[in-house]
Amino acid sequence: MSLWVIRSFFLLLCTVAGYAISQHRPEIIDGGLYGLAIGFGLGGTLIGLDEMLRGFSLRAFSAATFGLMLGAVVAWLIDRTELFIFADEKTRWVLRLCMFLGFGYLGMILAMRSNKEDFALLIPYIRFRSQNKPDNIVVLDTSVIIDGRIAELIEARFVEGIIVVPKFVLRELQFIADSSEVGRRARGRRGLEMLNRIRQNPRSEVRIHEMDFSEEKEVDAKLLKLTRALEGKLFTNDFNLGKIAELQSVPHVNLNDLAAALKLAVLPGDVFNLRIAREGKDKGQGVGYLNDGTMVVINGGQSLIGQPVQVRVQSLHQTGAGVIIFAELNVAAAA
Question: Number of folded domains in the chain?
């Protein structure tokens, strides 16, 4: 049921109650119209207070109550000293009222501004545990949006939090999408499609951040400043940006490093299936690829191009571009 339906029903009840009191107890409210107005006004006031206190947490209410009680105790102790004994009764009543209101207000304000450690000094065996967790801010750069893997990570709930896309990153995506070069235009449009896919995910909250740093001309420098200002984490595929972020102690994640860390570990002697895609450089060799793109060179696989085969790993060769796996056909399986 909608909250405003409940509020409307409550307002109606207050209005009817005011009218009923005017009919049955005219000495309290004289006249049906006055009863309707008073009931409606009381209900509206309470609903207004409810709306004003919408962000008021239970911890804040507890702190305010404790502060009010503490302020009232201080005011009572001062009043008991008979400090105002020489004032007349009317003046003394006004002074006491002001004192209780003033100390009550100060007590509430000080209690609401205090943290849980301040309460621990007053009440040693009670701890107020905060239930409000800090927001997890995820800042995306242009490269990681165009790449698209971040959308799958968000959908799989490996990346959670508030997704922040800076306005200057969005402008860069639009500039790339409007490029006259076919390749750049395709990459820009893919980035806009991926961003739209992330925004349509009901599990993610996407915010376009308006902050810009006019003194910085480079987008990378703006990204680092924004991430630090938001106390978030930068997601990128740019190796150089990642290194600069590391030097400036800005939290960041490089998806390429993450993908490399999650690559399937292949050791000599392992057996697996794959499809031979093309012939190799040497005679009789075939070449296939694992799901992560790792190249596998199969001895004797040239005649089986286009067919799925079972291979056994012989050795691994590390290159600047990655690992190359050398394998041979699994004769035992073929037999």
Answer: 3
